[in-house]
């Protein structure tokens, strides 16, 4: 995993909201959709956290300080973080699986900064394959100090690991958040999001207050290429962040959509 | 607008005109002074969209025979100008070419300079395209320039495009435009609409825009009479009777939404070759792959090429494709075209041109596949009525 910190060549900051993505390109290699992994920052730097899985992400992960990378965006929908603490009327439950924490990091930073004056608390549940794969370890400590409730579980433990082992959904039941006015933000593998959303509804969270970030092949970001079809949605336009309503619920329960 | 008077039997001059064969030829030549005119032209064994400089470039006397998995076109030697149905290729190739340069970048000294491709030098005029194709153009425009991002090429071509549509007298056996509300006649969305009439051989011209009016005014034409309009109505009535395939345009959207797990999908997957022909010939299928091609000097060309949801890589996501089975890919195509297109773009994605039926090498017929879903629904109703589980 590599986090690129990008500065615009004209040093102008780009307006965006956490949850949105950019199309990042390496000249001559190609272009991929990568979500921004922080909120808009005073230094104007765009953070993108990238897993090396294909030729373009490989070239991005290989980039050196000073290299030129193409950025188009921002595209898509966002996590709908309220602007003011007074608009935060309940607990915020954030569930991340693996690299799914990256698109949530900006929203987390914004929610945590709203915490002092807000009615609710932030609960962060992270599932990782093993302790080595836990992302943003420094941020976890920062969010914890700022008053967020942070819990991490891994699929496979390690000799030094003293934390939870098991599914991230196991953490939700005894967590202590108030489901009545809670909002939930979920990002991770599709199967993990499906089970997490079902569990959240199971403990009493209103489905219309659960947001998932879906992923499909994307080649343009502008709704032209047609690759990001998911049932009635064009994910680059209507997503990636979608409300867990009955339509989405049946879609992600259906095979090969 | 100045008040007009018409003689008994004449129709409003402003809206309808008549062109005889010489005047029609003159009209095409006149359009060529200002436009690159394209329309149906015969090749050795198919009618395709090509360059039209004069009336005799048209497939005069040609007939086509289209049925599932079969296309034959040949010169019958008579004088009917538009005795054929929808051509093998259509206006999609103009709006969204199969291979297109989006931009080039030149890398020099650590800087990138972006170069956009040149805009069209001449506006395009389409003459002899069919009502279903005019509907398809407006769907493509809605998809590619109707949202937040305007595709510059489609915008450029679409904006300047002059449309002289020809109403259909002889739909093919594969056509189902009347079901989709796109033909065989047309009432709006064109600059001029032509109907070929006989006895005497002539063209009834309906003006659809100010530009259409100007172009018709450049050539000699005569007044139309209500007998010409009656003749047109008869042509369209006969065409309607020739349309043998039907789809329940609005009902089918819900039907597809509720039949994601229907056995039809695996049945059709046993015949479907996944060849993508249906999506290539479809006048509204817009999917493209975007790729960068670089040369040794460091210059990069960003290309887009037609893509198809029948390709397994279409749904590729790190680690593998989402839609690996043929049934899921066929379901994606048909469901998008007839159902989720409404959610995404507010209309059906199908115009009923029948090309996907004609050009399917194994003759899969979308109208028959959709009818299969209906049959199952009816059986459900029957069994509920009969109280059988």
Helices and strands in order:
The complex is a heterodimer of chains A (257) and B (389).
Chain A lengths: L1 E5 L14 E6 L3 E6 L10 E5 L4 H7 L8 E6 L16 E6 L3 H14 L7 E7 L8 H9 L3 E6 L9 E2 L17 E5 L2 H13 L7 E4 L15 E2 L2 E2 L6 E3 L2 H8 L4
Parallel strand pairs in A: 6-7, 6-10, 7-8, 8-9, 10-11
Antiparallel strand pairs in A: 1-4, 2-3, 2-5, 11-14, 12-13
Chain B lengths: L15 E5 H14 E8 L4 E5 L10 E6 L2 E6 L16 H4 L3 E10 L2 E5 L7 E7 L1 H15 L6 H9 L1 E5 L10 H4 L11 E6 L4 E6 L2 H8 L4 E2 L2 H17 L8 H7 L6 H8 L5 H5 L6 E7 L5 E7 L9 E2 L2 E2 L4 H20 L9 H4 L7 H20 L4
Structure notes:
The complex is a heterodimer of chains A (257) and B (389). Chain A is an alpha/beta fold and 257 residues long. Chain A folds into 2 domains: 2-75, Beta Barrel (Elongation Factor Tu (Ef-tu), domain 3); 85-253, Nucleotide-binding domain of ferredoxin-NADP reductase (FNR) module (Rossmann fold), CATH 3.40.50.80. Chain A is 20% helix and 25% strand. Chain A has helices at 55-61, 101-114, 137-145, 190-202, 246-253; strands spanning 2-6, 21-26, 30-35, 46-50, 70-75, 92-97, 122-128, 149-154, 164-165, 183-187, 210-213, 229-230, 233-234, 241-243. In chain A, strand 2 (21-26) and strand 3 (30-35) form a beta hairpin. Chain A starts with a strand and ends with a helix. By secondary structure, chain B is an alpha+beta fold. Chain B has a domain at 16-97 and 120-242. Chain B has helices spanning 21-34, 92-95, 131-145, 152-160, 177-180, 210-217, 226-242, 251-257, 264-271, 277-281, 326-345, 355-358, 366-385; strands spanning 16-20, 35-42, 47-51, 62-67, 70-75, 99-108, 111-115, 123-129, 162-166, 192-197, 202-207, 222-223, 288-294, 300-306, 316-317, 320-321. In chain B, the strands form 4 sheets. In chain B, strands 3-2-8-9-10-11-1-12 form an 8-stranded mixed sheet, sandwiched between helices. Chain B has a 4-stranded antiparallel sheet with strand order 7-6-14-13, with no helix packed on it. In chain B, a hairpin with a 2-residue loop joins strand 4 and strand 5. Classes of the chains: A alpha/beta (257), B alpha+beta (389).
């Amino acid at each position: 995993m590599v986090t690129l910190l990008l500065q615009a060549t004209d040093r102008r900051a780009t307006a965006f909201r956490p949850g949105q993505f950019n199309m990042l390109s390496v000249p001559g290699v190609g272009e991929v959709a990568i979500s921004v992994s922080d909120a808009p920052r005073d230094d104007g730097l765009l953070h993108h956290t990238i897993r090396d899985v294909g030729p373009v992400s490989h070239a991005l992960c290989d980039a050196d300080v000073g290299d030129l990378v193409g950025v188009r965006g921002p595209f898509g929908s966002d996590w709908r973080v309220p602007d003011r603490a007074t608009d935060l009327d309940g607990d915020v439950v954030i569930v991340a699986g693996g690299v799914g924490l990256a698109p949530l990091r900006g929203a987390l930073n914004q929610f945590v900064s709203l915490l002092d004056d807000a009615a609710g608390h932030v609960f962060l549940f992270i599932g990782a394959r093993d302790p080595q794969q836990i992302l943003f370890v420094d941020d976890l400590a920062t969010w914890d100090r700022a008053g967020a409730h942070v819990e991490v579980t891994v699929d496979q433990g390690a000799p030094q690991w003293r934390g939870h082992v098991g599914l991230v959904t196991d953490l939700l039941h005894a967590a202590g958040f108030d489901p009545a006015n809670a909002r939930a933000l979920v990002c991770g593998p599709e199967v993990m999001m499906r089970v997490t959303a079902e569990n959240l509804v199971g403990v009493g969270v209103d489905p219309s207050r659960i947001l998932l970030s879906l992923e499909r092949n994307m080649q343009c970001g502008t709704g032209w290429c047609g690759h990001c079809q998911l049932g009635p949605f064009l994910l680059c336009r209507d997503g990636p962040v979608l409300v867990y309503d009955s339509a989405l619920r049946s879609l992600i329960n259906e095979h090969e959509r | 607008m100045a008040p007009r008077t018409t003689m008994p039997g004449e129709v409003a001059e402003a809206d309808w005109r008549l062109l005889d064969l010489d005047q029609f030829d003159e009209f095409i030549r006149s359009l060529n002074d200002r436009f690159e005119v394209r329309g149906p032209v015969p090749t050795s064994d198919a009618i395709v969209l090509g360059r039209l400089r004069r009336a005799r470039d048209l497939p005069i006397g040609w007939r086509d025979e289209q049925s599932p998995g079969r296309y034959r076109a040949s010169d019958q030697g008579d004088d009917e100008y538009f005795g054929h149905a929808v051509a093998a290729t259509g206006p999609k190739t103009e709006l969204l070419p199969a291979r297109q340069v989006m931009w080039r970048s030149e890398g020099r000294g650590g800087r990138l300079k972006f170069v956009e491709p040149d805009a069209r030098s001449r506006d395009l005029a389409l003459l002899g395209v069919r009502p279903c194709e005019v509907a398809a153009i407006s769907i493509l425009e809605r998809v590619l320039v109707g949202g937040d991002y305007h595709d510059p090429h489609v915008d450029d071509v679409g904006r300047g495009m002059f449309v002289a549509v020809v109403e259909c007298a002889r739909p093919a056996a594969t056509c189902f435009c009347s079901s989709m509300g796109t033909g065989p006649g047309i009432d709006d969305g064109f600059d001029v609409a032509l109907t070929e009439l006989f006895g005497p051989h002539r063209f009834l011209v309906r003006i659809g825009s100010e530009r259409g009016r100007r172009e018709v005014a450049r050539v000699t034409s005569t007044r139309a009479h209500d007998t010409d309009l009656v003749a047109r109505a008869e042509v369209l009535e006969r065409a309607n009777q020739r349309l043998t395939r039907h789809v329940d345009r609005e009902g089918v959207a819900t039907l597809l939404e509720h039949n994601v797990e229907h056995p039809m999908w695996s049945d059709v997957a046993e015949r479907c070759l996944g060849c993508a022909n249906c999506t290539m010939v479809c006048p509204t299928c817009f999917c493209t792959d975007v790729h960068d091609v670089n040369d040794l000097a460091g210059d990069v060309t960003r290309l887009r090429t037609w893509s198809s949801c029948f390709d397994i890589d279409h749904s590729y996501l790190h680690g593998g494709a989402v839609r690996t089975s043929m049934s899921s890919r066929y379901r994606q195509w048909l469901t998008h075209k007839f159902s989720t297109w409404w959610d995404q773009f507010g209309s059906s994605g199908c115009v009923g041109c029948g090309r996907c039926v004609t050009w399917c090498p194994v003759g899969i017929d979308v109208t028959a596949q959709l009818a299969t879903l209906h049959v199952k629904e009816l059986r459900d109703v029957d069994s509920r009525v009969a109280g059988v589980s």
